[in-house]
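Journal club prep, notes for RB
We'll compare a predicted complex against what the paper describes. Inputs for the succinic acid case:
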Amino acid sequence: MNSRSLSPTSTFDVYNSVTHACIATLTNATGNDIEAAISAATVRYYTPSTGHARQQMLIALHDQLTEHRHELATIISEESGKTLGDAMAEIDYANQYLSWFAQLAESMDAPIEVAEKVEVWREPAGVVGAITPWNFPCAMIVRKLAAAIAAGCPFVVKPSELTPLSALKIAEYTQNAGWDKGWLAVLVSNQNAAVGQILTTDPRIAKFTFTGSTRVGKLLSAQCASSLKRVSLELGGNAPMLVFGDADIELAVAQCVANKQRGTGQTCVAVNRIYVAASVAEAFTQALVARVSGLTTGDPLHPDTQVGHMITFDAANTTHNRVQQAIAQGAQVLCGGVYQAGSAYYPHTVLTRVQHDDDVVCEEIFGPLYPIITIDDTGLSNDAVMEQMLKYANDTQAGLASYVFSADNEVLAQCQRQLQYGMVGCNTAVLGNAAAPFGGIKQSGFGREGGSLGLDDFTYLKYIKPNA
Ligand code: SIN
């Protein structure tokens, strides 16, 4: 193990996103801690376990998350700035995956017969190394962990240094749930590159999984090549929302705002650009401004608050700079757009007169902005409008989520086929569902989390030729 670049003992502070008060000082994982975690996971991997036992582990963790929902939601809210309600929804989302993978765990024990004299088993891939982001401090760990444990893979995770307290709580809940040593190790550290280097190169780690930016995903994936790890990457998006002239405008607006309320727009599936047919652009825009302006702001821990804060002051400042840049490129701010320097709060901001090639459209915003691009549909058939919308929607290297709103089933069917994305929402902009395979194509990464084939990324197939 190459732990030379880790400092021997050092600490880092964790801050409340909203007040910037220090809420914890944690010790960075040392080389010895990481070695101990990977060794224990390796021993665990080679110790047989049944799918039934792992199913019970997942159910017990689900029960812990349910019992401690308020405690964990408060921690998530404090360290990430999301509202308490959003944090609770995140825990419920995580729990969906625990239930889902608990159901699948026993399937690992049954061989798959494919032909006479050919027996095929699904085997756990090995120890899993994971790096998880700050935008879902609980769900992005649990979604990967649940699949890994169901498959029989011990899990070593480095959570974001911005939100490590939720991860430590999850580890505590696994202990309460009676999980044996070795199944889960949480390595907290702000030495991201050094820990990432170890998790992507240690040969005892067979599978590496990452959720985060495309830039970092590419680096980590390249590092994994040295030991030929299995890799899955859930990376950045640039989700288009297509609103056709026959769409239910109230529904489209409600879905769009619900999408952007999650994590204050800081999700990989956040609507990034809204293409609206000109014939309904005014109605859509007015309804959007009305809904956004009616959102309740305030202390994220207050149960009535509907608008969260961003992860850091820097994130809010970057969002404001994007708005200024959009204005310089010709956009008009219809609501929001006012920023108090030194705050992690940024208002939901609706932008019109945006062009398809403006920076705010081409880049992933990761914030509560709604850039509206009007598509001329005067005297045009749905097919002609669709051609233009699809051309714009697919004009990106990202390929995670996309959304289409229309009353015409043929339009929806064509868009489902032609949108170059891993996920397409039809008359919805909220996709999360443990029964569905979550993941992208192109530079949004590869691999799928959830769904009936959700164990595949954590298993390999073993061919047995039975005794004749
Ligand atoms: C993400 O933003 O990385 C995940 C979003 C989701 O699961 O909905």
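Talking point for the session: The two ends are 44 Å apart (CA to CA).
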